[in-house]
């Protein structure tokens, strides 16, 4: 076994150039999720669609991601990482431009699916490319670079989306990807190493027919839950059950072929298993509730989309401060000694949101977001670093694919669960009937929903005859957000349980174990 250097080498210019390509792709893929989230009210007004219909602009994108991620490892082996990465960039950019041309909500959802097919490959491919470029002793530092768009996307997305919508039009939240995509393609052509694809192993068609449709069906059912408000609804439990059965069938099947679509044998690696569980629980907890932070500012405080995004900025500042430090520590200190403390910081910041009301101080909330950001910077990427560090070179593509699938499922489940809890709480508000502004016909709603509508439409609020009703409804809505955030807070605390099993001793890297005497290639 080759001796390890005493201290990790610094990242050289060649490696940082490769990191730049990957970060550009990750920024486009992740930013587009959060940018679209603030545009939902605009889409409702522009296309005359309901919230449930517009929500498919996000759900369709998520389903496409989940469907294509399992294919990434095999495709990287068959066609080469550079070629596949550039193809994914091109597909995502074309999908973005088409989204800007949509004339109705159906077209927009279809084009978002095309975007997702490209975006789904960008993250696992990017993780694979960067892990190989860094080598075993610099993975932590380089993964911290990749962590920038992963952690800052949810913060900068609402700011960028709000500014583009307020200053220009909704079309620009998609068109902005065109110059970035073209620049990334040119950059990738010159910077990424030339592909040397070898004869690929046989493609696991049986596994694909079980896993990809299974994930898509399960996430379809989960994503429909907020709309239907009941897990017993046919649109929810039927696809969820069918998807779960297909995924379970794949789990049993995957141990038979030599080269399955998704290699679950990797979970025999204790570090990967513990890191995967910790990452999944954290993603359910934080990403689900985190998407509701801007909604709280929009719906309870009546802020504009731009101001709501700016109020989220302290979280990004906190993450930027700790992320480089966490990346260096991940190369030197076992993450079992650092990640639990980062999770405690997140929980400490999160607690303030469990107490929110209609007039909660922005100083308190922004300070809490800053503390959460400090913890976020030391959580997600160190966990991924630990998971990939002990894999061999040819296992990295499969390991990163596995982590991305877990994140996608956990994020979708977390978002759906938090949306259901919030909607259920809001629906418990006192029912009222008001005349429709256009037709004059009576419309059934609740005090909370009416108050939220008034906060987002000050002109309507000023003309409403019963201001005390709006005040009661707004207080109820704020309490509903507080209850939802409390669930997220408890889940963050539960993340500490698997985190306590993360490695507390120095990990031995196996990344170079299979390189002796052979040219390293991506295999799946």
UniProtKB/TrEMBL annotation:
Highest taxon of source: Bacteria
Keyword Cell membrane attached: yes
One function term, GO molecular function aspect: transmembrane transporter activity
PROSITE patterns the record matches: MFS
Annotated InterPro entries: EmrB-like, MFS, MFS_dom, MFS_trans_sf
Main location: membrane
Name of this chain's protein: EmrB/QacA subfamily drug resistance transporter
Organism placement in taxonomy: Bacteria, Bacillati, Actinomycetota, Actinomycetes, Micromonosporales
């Amino acid at each position: 076994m080759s001796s390890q250097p005493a201290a990790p080498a610094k990242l050289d210019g060649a490696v940082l150039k490769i990191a730049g390509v990957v970060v550009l792709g990750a920024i486009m893929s992740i930013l587009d999720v959060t940018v679209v989230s603030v545009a939902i009210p605009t889409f409702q007004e522009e296309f005359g669609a309901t919230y449930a219909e517009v929500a498919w602009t996000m759900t369709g994108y998520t389903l496409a991601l989940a469907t294509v991620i399992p294919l990434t490892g095999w495709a990287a082996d068959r066609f080469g990482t550079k070629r596949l990465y550039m193809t994914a960039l091109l597909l995502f950019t074309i999908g973005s431009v088409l989204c800007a041309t949509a004339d109705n909500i159906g077209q927009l959802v279809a084009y978002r699916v095309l975007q997702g097919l490209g975006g789904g490959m960008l993250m696992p491919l990017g993780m694979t490319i960067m892990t190989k470029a860094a080598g075993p002793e610099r993975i932590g530092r380089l993964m911290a670079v990749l962590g920038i768009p992963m952690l800052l996307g949810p913060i900068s997305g609402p700011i960028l989306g709000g500014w583009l919508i307020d200053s220009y039009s909704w079309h620009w939240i998609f068109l902005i990807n065109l110059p970035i995509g073209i620049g990334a393609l040119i950059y990738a052509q010159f910077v990424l190493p030339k592909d040397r694809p070898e004869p690929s192993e046989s493609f696991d068609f049986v596994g694909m027919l079980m896993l990809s449709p299974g994930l898509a069906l399960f996430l379809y059912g989960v994503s429909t839950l907020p709309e239907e408000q009941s897990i017993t609804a046919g649109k929810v439990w039927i696809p969820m059950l069918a998807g779960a059965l297909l995924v379970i069938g794949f789990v049993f099947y995957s141990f038979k072929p030599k080269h399955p679509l998704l290699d679950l044998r990797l979970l025999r690696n204790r570090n990967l298993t513990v890191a995967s569980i910790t990452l999944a629980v954290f993603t359910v907890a934080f990403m689900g509730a985190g998407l509701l932070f801007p909604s709280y500012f929009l719906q309870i405080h009546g802020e504009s989309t731009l101001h709501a995004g700016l109020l989220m900025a302290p979280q990004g500042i906190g993450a930027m401060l700790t992320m480089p430090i966490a990346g260096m520590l991940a190369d030197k200190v076992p993450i079992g000694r650092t990640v639990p403390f980062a999770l405690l910081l997140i929980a400490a910041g999160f607690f303030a949101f469990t107490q929110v009301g209609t007039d909660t101080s922005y100083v308190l909330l922004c300070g809490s977001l800053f503390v959460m950001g400090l913890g976020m910077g030391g959580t997600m990427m160190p966990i991924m670093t630990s998971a990939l560090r002990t894999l061999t070179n040819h296992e990295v593509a499969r390991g990163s694919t596995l982590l991305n699938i877990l994140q996608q499922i956990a994020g979708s489940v977390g978002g759906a669960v938090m949306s259901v809890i919030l909607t259920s709480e809001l629906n418990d508000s006192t029912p009222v009937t008001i005349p429709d502004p256009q037709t004059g016909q009576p419309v059934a709603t609740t005090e909370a929903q009416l108050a939220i509508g008034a906060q987002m439409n000050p002109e309507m609020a000023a003309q409403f005859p019963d201001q005390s009703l709006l005040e009661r409804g707004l207080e109820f809505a704020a309490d509903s957000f507080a209850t939802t955030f409390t669930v997220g807070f408890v889940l963050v605390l539960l993340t500490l349980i698997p985190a306590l099993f993360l490695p507390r001793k120095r990990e031995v890297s196996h990344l170079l174990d299979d390189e002796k005497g052979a040219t390293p290639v991506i295999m799946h």
